[in-house]
Design goal:
The complex is a heterodimer. By secondary structure, chain A is of the alpha+beta class. Chain A has 22 helices and 21 strands. Chain A folds into 2 domains: about 190 residues, Alpha-Beta Complex (Penicillin-binding protein 2a (Domain 2)); about 350 residues, Beta-lactamase (3-Layer(aba) Sandwich). In chain A, helix 1 crosses helix 2, helix 9 packs antiparallel against helix 22 and helix 15 crosses helix 18. The longest helix of chain A has about 40 residues. The radius of gyration of chain B is 21 Å and the shape is globular. Classes of the chains: A alpha+beta, B mainly alpha.
Amino acid sequence: MEQDHDRTKSFTRRAFFVGALQGCVLGILGGRLAWLQVSQGQHYKMLSDHNRINIKMLAPTRGRILDRFGVPLASNEQNFRVLAVPEQSVDLGKTLSHLQKLVPLTQRDIRRIVKQARKTASFVPLEIKDNLTWEEVAKIEVNLPDLPGISIDVGEIRHYPHSNSTAHLVGYVGAVSRSELTGDPVLTLPGFRIGKTGLEKTYDKELRGMTGTAEMEVNVVGREVRELKRHPARSGQQLKLSIDSELQTFVQERISREKSASAVIMDVYTGGVYSLVSAPSFDPNLFIRGLSAEKWEEMLANPGLPLNNKAIGGQYPPGSTFKMVTALAALEEGVITRNTSAHCPGHYDFGGDRFHCWKKAGHGRVDLVDALTESCDTFFYKMATDVGIDTLTKYAHKLGLGQKFDFELKEERPGLLPTRDWKMGHFGEPWQPGETVVASIGQGYIQTTPLQLAVMTSRLVNGGYAVKPWITAFTGKEPVPNVSWPKIDFKKRHLDLIVKGMNRVISHPKGTAYESRMENPQFQMGGKTGTAQVRRITAEERLEGVLNKDLPWRLRHHALFVGYAPIKKPRYACAVVVEHGGGGSSTAAPIGHDLLQMAQMRDPAASPLLPDGETTNLASPPPRKPKLKTKRGH
Amino acid sequence: MAQAIEIHTALSLGQKLKHLNWGLVLLLMAVAGIGFSTLYSAGGGHIDPWASRQMLRFVVGVTCMIIVALVDIRWWLRLSYPCYIAGLLLLVAVQVMGHIGMGAQRWIDLGVIRLQPSELMKIAVIMALARYFHAAASEDIRRLSFLIFPVLLILLPVGLVMLQPDLGTSLMIVMAGIAVFFVAGAPLWLFGVGFAALAAIIPLAWMFMLHDYQKQRVLTFMNPESDPLGSGYHIMQSKIALGSGGIGGKGFLNGTQSHLNFLPEKQTDFIFTLWAEEWGLFGGLLLLALFGLLFVYAGWIAFKCRHAFGRLLAFGLMVNFSLYVFINVSMVMGLIPVVGAPLPLVSYGGTAMLAVLIGFGLIMSCSIHRDAKLPRM
């Protein structure tokens, strides 16, 4: 009994000890639980949300691009895709074979999709085919009961209704390349498209819009259980252009008759571009819906370079269209006056060289207006060295040549205005006076773009205002100011004199573009032709009288024309360059006629570009009509 | 004294039922009730597939428990060794014809239920130890040679369970056994030597005895973030579920971690996590408190027992029960490596529930027959 009593006491002691241990463990567990749920609660709450919430991005709708009348140049079309959810299909291969009867699918496609289905979670929809036609969609819809797991999904795809005629201007969109990833998460969305060329590229950010998000609750394998929150995507801004799409299409069709040409029509007062065309062109929709390798090769092989926007990126010697610059420089610098006249024997001898006038027999005695009318080279040769190359290029620059305008298209090129320093820096040789003689008629080193020539023409006829071209009421990133363009310090009588000569190029029977005069007296235009040599004509050729049209295409002259209309109150300026087109008066002037006639008939300037709530046209310049008198006749 | 024995050994059925520890039954029902509601939540707000079957098992288990409680403690004393031998045979049978489940051979499919003999063996070992020490005199217990037999009583089933392999159960048997040794009065220096030996054995066990997956569990436990999608996944997700529950919990049926399946085994080993995710710190502490009350209640019964067999049996079973709770809860909280141990009465599973309730049946039997006069044998 005593022993038992001892044992009981020992048991009690030791049992209490064990009990205390158990109490400690229970305490530790409670403490641990409190630590996890209270001090670490926030941390684990975050991890838990991170586990279960999957943020899905919602692609914004890309802003449309409209012409000045609201006609869409870039829009979004519905893109029908057929999807398959493997888990809803008993036998995916069999379902796809069934689908094969409705839409073109190769055996290889089916194998690829079935293989892909094995790799991904069975609830993830797989794209089988996109760009379905309405007919295909209808066929699938009707047969859906026999196609378990198949569904139709509507997405958006960019569409360019005017295809060829706005290809260079509007550009196109394409899949995001690695180098274009800026960190904007929207760029990583599958199937997201980014502007690759033209305005689509320039205004990509504005057009792109804001990504929306949907917070999806997902389970451990990523299946979406329900939507928790949704911030819808914000559509991109709408872009309204100064372009008149009908005029644009007309110009495209007109110049596409030539092998390679480009043209610009712009407003001489506002600088707004009505039409900017380069031919040959291409269908930008091909880049959206898939371009075949053959088609791509064909584009690359085309000597007319269909992918290039030659209206702003093509650099050509201006030829005789440069004579206005020489004339203005000479007048302003006092080298000549309105009464200065010169005799043209058909050539000009200078420094032991003979510089030919285009007219072998010569023009006889001509004054400035005559020289412009008949495009006499000799008259300008004679004043060239007195003006000097640096002064000449200074005036060319003032008129808009040899520079970039911060234009809205990245493909813009600056052209080239040579100076003494430039030549020394470039070739390490001093400038030769003979080169100034050549430069006076827009040959030699001088390079200009059609856009620059249109700006030059605008500045000559608008009373000497330094307009800059624009398409969306922006130059660079600055909105086009409502205030007037700065006036250039040209004397009005000098400008008037030059305009008079340009008027007579068309209106005078001796004018080089008389053949292209307007029938409608209201639509009368003025202008200047140009024929730019792409290489020096050799003495033998001159002797043998080799005809330009007999030469291979690559060696033929460029045909140029700059013009404006109507002559009473010029509003539209145009520049046309036909690559290797032969003569300015024979090839380019008729195009200029057609372009300016159509521009006046459509008269887009009469309907000002109204700012639209959603467009980026923050400052749309009101039509400003400074009084510009053009003296007619002597 | 003799009179008292006479009274208690001649208890009628009605008297026994009256003496049954109804408070303990109520506590068990409360804990099981938490289990049912959690299984209902685990089933996505459905009584099927888990909650309904668990309730059925509980009813069967409680019936068994009461029957066990009513059986005279002397019978249990006599049956101790036979039970032990039966348990050993079952363990051998599991080796021979056991089913492969969760990568380990632990079950015998009896057609009606899948029997997990190791669960029953835990009770049998304690019974056998209580039986052995009951017969011992105080001076016997201080003799080392006297202690060799009970050590073998422990090591034999532990060896068989290790073969399955089931580290968690083996450790539980060892720890419960040590507890019985301790309260039975084994000399204290023995435990000092034991711990020293253990410290020496651990590196050896690591090298030669543990399976690769067991080592992996331990390594993962040391640094669960090292392998978040592999073995560390369970611990990480369980901690996230617990922690994100916060003080008030996410609400009944709203445990995102569990319902979105981030939490594995939510109806079995990780049921505590689901409960605490939905009911927060309050729920978690409530459940721990209920378990604590059960320990105290069972411990109290052991104190009240007037024979060594009852004291040792009741106390050993209480320690065994507490080990289930400690191991499971520590595991889901990331305090110890992942071992397959259910939360008793709460986790979905038949054998564990049955074993625990039979254990409580024995404890109650000790309580009803606390004044019985037991022969030394």
